[in-house]
Structure formats: structure tokens, C-alpha cells
Amino acid sequence: MVEAVMFWNEPNNLSHWDAELDPGWERFADMVSRAATAVRSEVPGITRVLGGISPIDPCFVQRLQSLGATDALDALAVHGFPLDWNHWQLDEWPARLQTIRDTTDLPVWVSEVGASSFGAEEVQDFGLRRTAALLDGQTPRIHWYSLCDLPKAWPATTRHREAEGSSYYRHFYMGLLREDGTPKPAVDSFAELAPRLGICQWFHFEDPRLEMAVRWLERLGVTHLRTGISWADSLRPDAERWFDRQMLALDRFTVTVTYCFTPESLGLRPHHTSPPRDPDQFAEFCARMTRRYGA
């Protein structure tokens, strides 16, 4: 069951939205407003969420508010990875969350939080337990990122790839399961914390891990799942057949589905981070997917 739709992913992160083409986020705010309005017309009761921001920046939220983007939304979301990428410590989580609460009357979700096992799997297990203790009761949704390690043969979605050094390679060790599907020590800790903690798991187009992931999600007692449907993938041959397969497999969970990534042919630049030339095309995509999966 789809309970919520999320518009974009980390819009204040250059790896996900090209701020050089939209330095004041006017295009982004207009696109989100149109998409949120279109989605509400399809499924009036569905929760509409601003794509999780990273870094956690109250000034960014205030900017979107000044542009009217949050008027059409029901919740905001944040992402945080203090053990891997953020320039703040793990115990600062409640204070960081409060900086966003202080700017809005909307609920604030944590739609991605995690810890890599890049240095040691024991660090991930500690990060999971400590994060849960810090955030429990502080937010309506907590989605741990993620269930599966990213296969090393696949690229991580970042701006500079290998030039980022160890920061880039941490992306491949965020899962509770290793690439071969075997569990890390944090699996047992997560099972104790579910269903208060949900999972964020992205699936690539025709991802061979889908059925394995569903079995593990059920085994771990997950009820709330965040995933994505790529606008860019929607132009591939047989895209809707893959989307149907993915969403049918996930229908047993309470799903937040994220709409993001511009098709190269529709962007101001031919890149998935580009603002679209026509924001109504993104709104139409969001409405169509919500009509198909959100009712």
C-alpha cells in the first residue's frame, strides 16, 4: 500500500539537483508545487512529502517556504549520516532535527539515516542502535538506509565518483546485507528495533535483488518501506512492466515512493540532476504513477 509520495531526493545536494541551473531553487519549488497539486487531484488522501534534504539546512527550508513550495505539502524529510559524511556528531541528531521543526509546522520525517560498514561492521551495529535511541519518538517516520549493499559493479549516485576517495566507497557498504546476500551483525539489532524503524531501499531498473529483498524485509518485520520510481527510467522500453513488478512485490508494506531523476531528453542539460524544461511533464509523471499505484 502506498501511503506517501516524495518529490525528489536530496534537492539541496548537487549530486541530485543541479543548482548551477537553478541557483535560487525557483525551478525546483515550481516543479514541486505543480507535482504536489497534480498528485492531490489523483489521490486526495495521500501524504505528499518534500524529498529528504541533505544537508539538514533550515535556510533551505525557509527558501522553499518563501517560494510557496511547502504550501502544497503535508510533510518534510531530512537525511543524515554523521558517521560517514556529515560534519556533525551522532549525538547531535535531536538538535539537528529540531532546527527543521523550528522552521515549519509540518511533520518532519527522517527518510534516510544510516551507517556504513566500510571501516568495521561493528561500527554499523553501534550506529544503528545509537541512532534508534536518539530518534525514537522524535519523528513520525525513520527509514534506515539500507537493506542491501550496493554491488561494486554498479555506480553510486554521486557527483564526482571515485575522485571523492573513501567517501565514495562508503556508499557500497550501507546495507544490513552484504553484496552476496549474507547478513551483517546489525541485522539482529535491526530485527529488535522493527517495526519502529523502517527501511529505505532503492531498486535499480530490473533489479535482480527484488525478491530476495522482499523476503528479508518480511523476515526482519519491516512494515514501512521507502523506495523510488525513476522518471528517467520511465522512458525505457517496458518501463511500466518493471514498475508494476516492483510495486506489486512491495504491496505488502506501507510504502513511501519517491519520484525523481530527469530523463536526459527532457532536461535543461542532458543529465538526471537537471531541472526539466517543462515542469508539467514531471507533474504528469507523478500524477500518472500515483494514479497507478497510490489508489
Written as H for each helix and E for each strand, in order along the chain, the element string is EHEHEHEHEHHEHEHEH
Strand content bin: 5-15%
Q: How do the strands of the widest beta sheet line up side by side?
A: 2-1-8-7-6-5-4-3
Main beta sheet: 8 strands, parallel
Mean pLDDT: 95
Low-pLDDT parts are none
Sum up the overall morphology in one term.
globular
Q: Specify the helix fraction band.
A: 25-40%
Query: Which structural class is indicated by helix and strand composition?
Result: alpha/beta
Structural descriptors:
8-stranded parallel sheet; 8 strands; 295 residues; alpha/beta; globular; 9 helices; 14% strand
Show the helix and strand layout.
Layout lengths: L1 E6 L18 H17 L4 E4 L7 H9 L9 E5 L12 H9 L6 E6 L7 H15 L6 E4 L20 H4 L16 H8 L4 E3 L9 H11 L3 E7 L8 H11 L4 E7 L18 H15 L2
Parallel strand pairs: 1-2, 1-8, 3-4, 4-5, 5-6, 6-7, 7-8
Helix pairs in contact: 1-9, 4-6
Task: Describe the protein's architecture and organization.
The protein has 295 residues and is an alpha/beta fold. It is built from 9 helices and 8 strands. It has helices at 26-42, 58-66, 93-101, 121-135, 166-169, 186-193, 210-220, 239-249, 279-293, and strands at residues 2-7, 47-50, 76-80, 108-113, 142-145, 198-200, 224-230, 254-260. It has an 8-stranded parallel beta sheet with strand order 2-1-8-7-6-5-4-3, covered by helices on one side. Helix 1 runs parallel beside helix 9 and helix 4 (121-135) packs parallel to helix 6. The longest helix is centred in the first third of the chain and has 17 residues, at 26-42. The N and C termini lie close together (8 Å). The mean pLDDT is 95.
